[in-house]
C-alpha cells in the first residue's frame, strides 16, 4: 500500500476509535491528573484578595510535595526538626511521580522507573535501604528482586520486526556498527576527561564540562562526523526520553551525561554490554512517593497552593490558598524550602533574589503527554521477533513508546492491562495540550499504535490522557553550568529561603530531585542545630 494511502486509512481508523465516527458507544476517556486551571490559579487570584485570618506557625515550611519537597521533609524530620508543614497544590503528593488508576488497574501518571542508584547517589541508596528495597548481603548491595524490572525489559520495532533492546540492530562490519563503536569510544573518552555523576553536582564542573555545555549535542556529534541515521535516531530518542527534547536542542554535556553518568554506551558485541538494572512498579514511581510521603502524616497539607512568600528579618510568611475551601491561610516559620519549579518560585516570592529571576527566565520546560490505554487483554503484535517487554518503542515514531503496567505480574495468565504511552512535546504544542477536547490527542496516540497492534480496536476500552504542561527542564546549552542555579542551590548558611527542585540541575530525574531536597532539608536543619532560629 502506498504510504500516503496507508496513513489516511490509519487516521480514519484512529478517528473512528476515538469516538468521532465510531459506530456504537464512543470511546470512554478524558483528561486526568493535574488540572491546568489550578496551576494557573497563581495568576488568577489577585494578591490583595489573599488577606487571611490568624497566623499559624511551624518550625519549617516546605512548598511542593514532589520528590524534592518530600525528600526535604524527610531530611528535616531525620535531623529532629519535626514541626514542619508541607504544602502541595494538587490533591496528592508526588508531582511528576504520581500514579493513576484506570478501572482498578494502577499505572504511572508520569515517572515510571528508578535505576539502581550508583555510589554518588548515596542519599537515595540510604533511603532505599531504610524502606527495605536494598539490602546488604556479604558486603554487597542487593535489590529486592520483586521490584527489579523483569525480563524482557525493552524492545524496538524496526524493519518490520521486534528486536530486543532499544539500540537499532546493525550487522557486523556495517557502517552503522562502525559508528556505534566510534561513539562508544567517544563516550569512554568523555568519561575519562570530564567525568559524570548522578546527582550531577557530585562531578566537579571543569573546563571540559564547560566546553560540552557550550554547544548542542547534535553539533558535537557532527563535529566527530557521527551522522549514521540509526545512531542519531537512538541518541535523539535518549535525549527526548530523559530531557524531553532532541539532540539538536540539548547540550553536549547533557547528551554525554546520559551515558557517562550511568551505564556508558555499549556497541553491539562489546563485552561489558550488560543492561542497567531498574526498579519499577505498575504505578511507576508513585510507589516510591507513597513510601516517602507516609511518615509525614498530617504534616502534609494537600490541595494548598502557595501564593505568596515574604521574607522578613525575623522569619518567613507564607500565604496559601486552600483549593477545597476557596480561602487563604497564613503560615509563619523561621525559614521555608521552595520545592517548586523556578518559574513558580519567582512568581510567589516577594522581591525574588536576582538569581531566581535569572533562573526562571533561563529554564524552559518541555510539555509531556502520557496516554493510558485500558485493554481487556494484551495486544497481538504485528511482525515477528522479541516478545512483549516492559518498555516497547517504535523506530521513527512520534512518541517514545509505551510501558505495560502488567509487566511485573508473576502470574502469566493474560489479563486486562494498561499501556502508558509517553509523548515529549515541543513548547509550541503546550497551548494545544491545554485544550479541553482530549479526542484529537487520543487520535494521535491510537494512530501511532495501530500499525504495531492491529487488534487495538477490539481491545481498547478506555483512554485516559495526562498532560504535564511544564514537565521537565530542558538542559539546553548554558543551562546546567549557569551561575544562577549554583547560587540557588547554595543559598548560604544564614538564608531563610532555600530552594529544592530538579530544575536546579537543569534536567529532571528522581536522583536529582531527591538530592536537592535532601541538601535543602539538611541545610535548614543545620540552621536549627546552630541555634540560628529560636523556637517559639
Ligand atoms: C512524563 C514524565 C515521565 C518521567 N519519567 C521519569 C522516570 O521514569 N524516572 C525518573 O527518574 N524521572 C522521571 N521523570 C522526571 C521527574 O520529573 C522526576 O523524577 C521528579 O519527579 C521531579 O521531582 P521534583 O520534586 O523536582 O518536581 P515536581 O514533580 O515538579 O514537583 C513539584 C511539586 O510542587 C507542586 N507545586 C507547584 N506549584 C505549587 C504551589 N504554588 N504551591 C504548592 N505546591 C506547588 C507541584 O504540584 C508538584 O507536586 C519524568 C517526568 C515526566 C513529566
Q: Explain this structure to me?
A:
Helices cover 32% and strands 22% of the residues. With 536 residues, the chain is of the alpha/beta class. An eight-stranded mixed sheet has the order 1-22-18-21-20-19-10-11. A five-stranded parallel sheet has the order 13-4-3-17-23, with helices on one face. Helix 7 (217-223) crosses helix 9, helix 11 (342-348) packs across helix 12 and helix 12 crosses helix 16 (483-489). The termini are far apart.
Compile the SSE list and pairings:
Elements lengths: L2 H15 L10 E5 L3 H9 L10 E3 L2 E4 L3 H12 L5 E4 L11 E4 L2 E4 L4 E3 L6 H9 L3 E4 L2 E4 L10 E5 L2 E4 L10 H19 L13 H7 L3 H7 L5 H15 L8 H9 L17 E3 L5 H8 L6 E2 L2 E8 L4 E7 L4 E7 L2 E3 L3 H7 L5 H9 L2 E11 L15 E4 L7 E3 L12 E8 L5 H4 L5 H11 L6 H4 E14 L9 H7 L7 E3 L10 H20 L7
Parallel strand pairs: 1-22, 2-16, 3-4, 3-17, 4-13, 10-19, 17-23
Antiparallel strand pairs: 5-6, 7-12, 8-9, 10-11, 14-15, 15-16, 18-21, 18-22, 19-20, 20-21
Helix pairs in contact: 1-14, 3-17, 7-9, 11-12, 12-16
The structure holds flavin-adenine dinucleotide.
